């Protein structure tokens, strides 16, 4: 299994196109979208080529390949124009022997998601910061992952995306350089 992970597009047609070109060139089982797809939000600057209608036109044809969760900038009006569900606060995915808990990060975070067993994974967006680390909570270990932001990275980080497999998680720049990675 191999999943392409994007978060925090914030309506950028430029970065959505770049990332979807990378996605289409690879062999991925699904495209995981971790929220904040169309709207830039009141706290963010406009991303490069802010064009939510273009982002809609790029994502909708991939509706059967997408698993998405709702971000804090996603609203019911966004769901009305997207052909795949985006309003869930979380999703669960089995990755071999691991459970993957996907959430944007504004409702559930790496310290509050339901940790069931050693080696589970919390995959989030929201902070716009790339994270790939092993952590401990309540006597169990888990993996905290965040692909960073596709369009509005913070703290000097590059625009990025993630690739999730049974063996681990890697965060890549748009030039294909590995930014961070963790093995499971």
TrEMBL record:
Coiled-coil stretches: none
InterPro entries, A to Z: Calcineurin-like_PHP_lpxH, Metallo-depent_PP-like, Phosphodiesterase_MJ0936/Vps29
Enzyme superclass (EC): hydrolase
Segments crossing the lipid bilayer: none
Top-rank lineage group of the source organism: Bacteria
Keyword RNA-binding attached: no
Keywords, comma-separated and alphabetical: Metal-binding
GO molecular function, one term: metal ion binding
EC number: 3.1.4.-
Record has DNA repair as a keyword: no
Calcineurin-like phosphoesterase domain ranges (all copies): 1-166
Cofactor or coenzyme needed: a divalent metal cation
Similarity remark: Belongs to the metallophosphoesterase superfamily. YfcE family.
Protein's UniProt name: Phosphoesterase
Protein source organism: Oribacterium parvum ACB1
Lineage: Bacteria, Bacillati, Bacillota, Clostridia, Lachnospirales
